[in-house]
Amino acid sequence: MDINSLPSSTDNKQDKVRIYVVQRCARLLELEHGVQTAIEEIATAAKAGANLIAFTETWLTGYPAGVFGMASWNDPEARSWYKKLVEASPTASSSYITRIRDAARENKIEVVLSFNEQARESGGTIATVSR
Length: 131
Known about the structure:
Blueprint lengths: L18 E4 L8 H17 L4 E4 L20 H12 L7 H13 L2 E3 L19
């Protein structure tokens, strides 16, 4: 294909994609802190000229991976950690996620954010796209 026949970037009114990647550590299972920090990072990224911000996997509250490697499912410590994980996991339409969506909209930036999601509203899927 002739490169000259491809649409130019000026057709999209944007010449470059500037990506801001967040590599801060989350506070384990502290949802409110994660939301507030995400909102701050979104504003910082936008001010730096980024049009896309990406957070690392399960960044919002972290992920206590050791829970699933503990002795057994009936282990009291494993069950305690799993309960904390569920309690710190928002639903996609929760006020926590709405605040992040609002920050993205206000700062005119796209956000890539994965989080542990309670499945009550969505039937168990973790693939959620919101605009």
